[in-house]
Here is the input.
Amino acid sequence: MTKAIATALTAALFALLGLSQAWAFDTRATAAYVVDQGTGTVLLSKDADTPLPPASMSKLMTVYMAFEAVREGRLRLSEDLPVSQHAMNYGGSTLFLRAGERVKVEDLLRGIIVLSGNDACAVIAEALSPDGTEAGFAQLMTRRARTLGMDNSTFANSNGWPDPGQRMSMHDLALLANRLHTDFPEFYPMFAETEFLFDEKENQNRYNRNPLLKLGIGADGLKTGHTSEAGYGLVGSAKQGDRRIFFAITGLQTAKARAEESEAIVNWAFRQFSEKTLVKADTPVAEAEVSMGNVSTVPLVPARDIELLLPIFADEKVTAELLYNGPFKAPIAKDQELGTLIITPEGMPSVSVPLYAGQDVAKGGFLVRLRAAANALLGHAGLKIESTS
Here is the structure.
């Protein structure tokens, strides 16, 4: 049974939390995805689930798997890994590694994160591959991506070198960025490092290409990317106050356009939206009908505050719908999940919030159960036994 929400969430409350289409952001990127971490609100989605050439942004998957290996003890930060001829042969952004030398895992990770080293990725990949090859590691990358919910990502190599089999969506990249922040807080500060001098003799590549890190807008990661096929892209994160956003963009024509678009997205996400509490935790939003209980209804409550990220200028409606299959048969335990509240701000994705029983409901006495059984039998005849108490 679907029930429209009524008394608890009033029209006046939703009018207060209305929206305006003026918040929309018209990005120059060919594909983009912006999400608020705290509320999970998707602020922008443009061809976000289309698999595209990710360039060096795909290095984030290699980094994620390396972090996992370090945490699980399969790699040590102080461990020296050998550089193969295959790794040395990579061009583009490199650490200028030479075949036969050995490099610490920690230096390799910084070389990937800060300097975008293609060769450093290959060294990590060969160390973690089941068959010692980068191609074998790429197969692991694809399988691991699926378990993370990255359904539009496939890998042919560890670093984003152009290949028809190397594809990621902007949605997947933003999801991966969130997981890197959430799963590995001890390593995440590496993404904010602006410089890493690996070899004084080879100092051509020592600066982080992320254009946001020195702007004072809260940016602290994650990874740029560029190939002629992909254009210029960036997977970014920024934190201001209690809010953090992740975003992924691609297809910009120049590094300057990438820098301008990334800064504009961060400013827009923080300046044009604010977080508002719609309903406090444990506050009843509706009453659900109960059968054969000592009471006739049970309050439905959220376990946590219902918070929405909404445009600061509000003049449109927010709608809400309550979904549950009832009436619910007693007994009912407090905090038992009973329904879902679907909140839809106009022009933005819907938010689903689980609702729970706000109190215990015990079985009714013999007369209550007898009356319920009789009503079930008589209901087909349009009759009903009313309580005389």
About this structure: Residues 1-22 have pLDDT under 50 and may be disordered. The first helix runs from residue 11 to 16.
